[in-house]
Amino acid sequence: IVLSEKTNGMALAGFIVSICSFLIDLAGIVPLTSLILSIVGLTQIKKNGEKGKGFAIAGIILSILEVVIKVIIIILCPSSFSLFIISAACDFIVTSTIFMVNYGFSFQRSA
Questions:
Q1: Phi, psi dihedral angles at 51 (to 5 degrees)
Q2: By C-alpha distance, which of 92, 24, 21 is closest to 59?
Q3: Which residues have a Cβ under 8 Å from the Cβ of 50 and sit 6 or more positions away?
Q4: Which of 59, 21, 65 lies closest to 40 in space, CA to CA?
Q5: What is the mean pLDDT of the chain?
Q6: DSSP type of residue 4
Q7: What is the pLDDT of residues 50-85, one digit of tens each?
Q8: Helix/strand/coil for 7
């Protein structure tokens, strides 16, 4: 019986979040979150020999690309900075929710 290697969840999550962030055009925190997830995933892959190296590398590249593009936009169009701040606040809410759901955080009081 040959067991297939599992794909690293962090690498896959980093890739998916970077794609969603790139398509939705959120600012600041979400690309950084996907960068961190992808780097952690790549580190785990090297340590554990799991699959998903391509997902991790793609997530890293897309995240860095998005941050660079957004910095260029802010430099070239300073008036977009206020929209960037509002978008970053929304990113923080989305990112916090992702982590809370991922780690099982609940707002319900325990009895």
A1: -85, 165
A2: 21
A3: 5, 6, 7, 8, 11, 44
A4: 59
A5: 75
A6: P
A7: 899 999 999 999 888 888 877 777 777 766 666 666
A8: strand
